[in-house]
Amino acid sequence: MQRLISAIETVAALFLLLIALVTAGNVTLRGLFAVQIPDWFDGSKLLLGIALFWGIAVATWQAGHICVDVLWEHLGRRGRLALDLVAGTVTLAFLAPMAWMVWAKVLTSGSQATTDLRLPVAWFTGVAACGAVAAAVLAAVRLVALLRGNAPAPGGFADGAPDGP
């Protein structure tokens, strides 16, 4: 499972890096040579969508998203588990239909293309849809792991601490 999570983290990070490189490259080219990268704006928006969906998958598994623990901190072990199960169920209830609808967007995008290079938008939304599916699947896996009592602690680590020195 850790390999899968690492792969998902890597996909999200690579797309964030690509956005940064395209943006920095465009600014540099525009400032030095008065030219810009074709489709840099459309491309960076589409890449951001991909990075967000894959990032949501990682955050869902690790329970590393922003959360308020005012109630959770004051509950006992069983209360925390119950609250985690409710939160996991609600998360899955939102992520599963979202993944479905992102795939519906992919299948109905037809011949939509970017402005300059005429790259099919479906390529980008397809990769984003895979991230949305990964988020829904990881939400379901986390819910099962909570029920079995072996879900990673918030932050994604089984004992609450990162591996290594």
TL;DR?
The chain has five helices and no strands. It is mainly alpha-helical and 165 residues long.
Q: Determine the structural class based on helices, strands and strand pairing.
A: mainly alpha
Task: Give the biggest sheet.
Answer: none
Write down the oligomeric state. Answer: single chain
For the residues shown, what is the average pLDDT? Answer: 87
Percentage of residues in DSSP E strands = under 5%
Count all strands and give the number. Answer: 0
Domains, number? 1
Which spans of ≥5 residues are poorly predicted at pLDDT below 50? 157-165
Helix content: over 70%
Element pattern in H and E: HHHHH
How far apart are the first and last residues' alpha carbons, in Å? 22 Å
The number of helical elements comes to 5
Radius of gyration: 19 Å
The rough form would be described as elongated
